[in-house]
Amino acid sequence: MASALLTATTLSVLGLAASVVLGQFAETSQEVIQHVSLAVFVTMMTLLSHSMLMFYLIGKGKAVREAVAEASLSADFVVEISRARKPVFSLAMPVILLTIVAAVIGAGVDTGAIPSWFHGLFGYCAVLSNVVLLRAEYIALAASTRTVAKVNRLLGV
Fold this sequence. Notes:
There is one protein chain. By secondary structure, the chain is an all-alpha fold. It has helices spanning 2-24, 29-71, 76-111, 116-155. The mean pLDDT is 95. Helix content is 90%, strand content 0%. The longest helix is centred in the N-terminal third of the chain and has 43 residues, at 29-71. The chain has 4 helices and no strands. The protein has one domain (1-155). The chain crosses the membrane at residues 33-58, 88-109, 121-143.
């Protein structure tokens, strides 16, 4: 499950980057339509994949907490998994908000109310922040997988 979530998130962030590049070089109305179509789709997929990954980390934390309580294991496992997911939760909401803002102000560009450079700036910032969040998610998933493996080994699973 973790690898599927990580793959989906990686592909959606790559799609977001492709959308920004496509928008940067769009000259015809057809190219703008392609940019908008891709941007709407990958923005939704990016937000969905980040959210699903956060719920996955919440579930892993709960499972470890329950296993530790039931089997009287060291509370260090709970601390480990909490420490692993903290950077993801610290970054996720600002990154998700920035991604939403970048997408929403794109509509302002279409109506002429917002200059395209402003939308482009938000787009590039959204891509960069999503890459940073993706890195944090990868580290958190790797750490939580190691912690779960240790707990499972102690439980004989």
